[in-house]
Write a structure and sequence with these properties.
With 480 residues, the chain is an alpha/beta fold. Helices cover 37% and strands 12% of the residues. Strands 1-2-3-4-5-7-9-10 form an 8-stranded parallel barrel, surrounded by 5 helices. Strands 6-8 form a two-stranded parallel sheet.
């Protein structure tokens, strides 16, 4: 059951979901900083003007800003080979448009990188993980504007130069394809349409043409970042990051088959095709025409895309859904990416259907398409965790989830997939990106922080902490 030698076991986080210190060290306001808390039954709100007495979870998050040494020591205790984290854009350029980068922000991430290297942990850095500076939303409506490309490339240049020789792996945009859905407009691109009406994060005022235009700008920015990275350091490897929403036809009816294929084209393949192959796929022509979307390109854009293909492919995988042409088919409670329930699968506390074999299937599908090295950089189970009387957290349900997915990753490797790393999501409890809550816990490490803003931020190891430590020690051989 052993994994390949040098396999990168680790964990993943994002700056706005764990750092806190939202106005320390010269940091500017980012889009997550204006989002209130929420839950799986109550959407978080977008408030361009902060409300007194309202709880904003990103402002303190889990206080990693002051506790990163403690947290990285815990990751090292588990035996991490790699740690995926993100840089808060607003720590480097508070509004995005400063002439020079903020030294305090550069130094903060240099300290994190050095702390990782001290323990032999490889940094894997996401450049933009749902972190658009809010000043760029106000001035340009985020990625709807082409102005964002040069602003982003300047940001990349600052961090590529600063961390040269210390970092090898970079990801340009987290879950870039989330912008194929209305929720991704503000979440991923910082687009806020009709500000006075868009307050509900899950029900944003949507303009699809802006989202897809924003994606084009991100594609160009990513391609330019790849070229810049290779110019600055030939050892740099730059990857894409896709939220892979594995989808099956509900039945063998041809209508379900076609619907599922169309869904996969837009949700799962479009962004990967552009970033890995370097050009727009032909199936998008019909989609754009039928949805009255016209992508504005400039001369040279096609050449930039072709010259800036990524070096490796990474993705998040949590669940799968089914597609049905039957309008009466039961929609899943937790299917935020659409689709209907699979009658053969169980679901998590949040209604996300658990499908380990879907991960093997997805790995094979993706690798067959692109033939690039791959990493699973998010995977995990969000659940309610309970502290027992003796202080322990017995999260066997999380261990079962992760074990079954690791087993299927190994099957995919035997199938011939070049899988080089695995970083389960939220290796330490953090704020949920979609719901803004702490109650949806993913970590191996419990953080004493709650949705009412109480808690002393203390850390404690869950049962899964010791289990994952054993998995890494044995390179995946001992999953018991």
């Amino acid at each position: 059951m052993s994994f390949p030698n040098g396999f990168l076991w680790g964990g993943a986080t994002a700056a706005n979901q764990l750092e806190g210190g939202w106005q320390e060290g010269g940091k500017g306001i980012s889009c997550p900083d204006i989002c209130t808390g929420g839950s799986h039954t109550q959407s978080k709100r977008i408030t361009p003007v902060l409300e007194e007495g309202t709880f904003y979870p990103s402002h303190d998050a889990i206080d990693h800003y002051h506790r990163y040494k403690e947290d990285i020591a815990l990751f090292a205790e588990m035996g991490f080979k790699v740690y995926r984290f993100s840089i808060a854009w607003t720590r480097i350029f508070p509004t995005g448009e400063e002439k020079d980068p903020n030294e305090a922000g550069l130094k903060f991430y240099e300290n994190i990188i050095d702390e990782c290297l001290k323990y032999g942990i490889e940094p894997l850095i996401t450049i933009s993980h749902y972190e658009v500076p809010f000043a760029l939303t106000k001035k340009y409506n985020g990625w709807a504007s082409r102005e964002m490309i040069d602003i982003f490339v300047k940001y990349c240049e600052a961090i590529f130069n600063r961390y040269k020789g210390k970092v090898k792996y970079w990801l340009t945009f987290n879950e870039i394809n989330s912008a194929t859905m209305p929720m991704g407009a503000f979440l991923s691109q910082g687009i806020l349409n009709e500000t006075e009406k868009t307050t509900d994060f899950m029900s944003q005022v949507d303009k699809p043409e802006l989202r897809f235009q924003g994606l084009h700008h991100q594609f160009i920015a990513s391609a330019l970042a790849v070229q810049l990275a290779h110019k600055i350091d030939s050892n740099y490897m730059v990857g894409c990051m896709i939220v892979y929403a594995t989808s099956y036809p509900l039945t063998c009816h041809p209508d379900d088959i076609i619907l599922n294929q169309q869904n996969n084209h837009i949700m799962n393949w479009f962004c990967g095709d552009v970033q890995c192959r370097g050009y727009y796929p032909s199936y998008m022509n019909r989609y754009f025409k039928e949805h009255n979307i016209e992508i504005k390109k400039e001369d040279g854009d096609d050449e930039i895309l072709k010259a800036g293909c990524v070096d490796f492919y990474t993705f998040s995988y949590y669940m799968s859904v089914c597609q049905s042409a039957n309008p009466d088919a039961t929609k899943g409670q937790g299917n935020i990416m659409g689709g209907v329930n699979n009658p053969y699968l169980k679901a998590s506390d949040w209604g996300w259907q658990i499908d380990p074999k879907g991960l093997r299937y997805s790995l094979n599908e993706i690798y067959d398409r692109y033939q690039l090295p791959m990493m699973v950089v998010e995977n995990g189970l969000g659940a309610f965790d309970k502290i027992e009387e003796d202080g322990s957290i017995k999260d066997d349900y999380r261990i079962d989830y992760l074990r079954s997915h690791i087993e299927q990753m190994h099957e995919a490797i035997l199938d011939g997939v070049n899988l080089i790393g695995y970083t389960p999501w939220g290796c330490i409890d953090l704020v949920s990106a979609s719901t803004g809550e702490m109650a949806k816990r993913y970590g191996f490490i419990f953080v004493e922080r709650y949705d009412d803003g109480t808690g002393d931020f203390s850390r404690r190891r869950k049962d899964s902490f010791y289990w994952y430590k054993k998995v890494i020690e044995t390179n995946g051989e001992d999953l018991k």
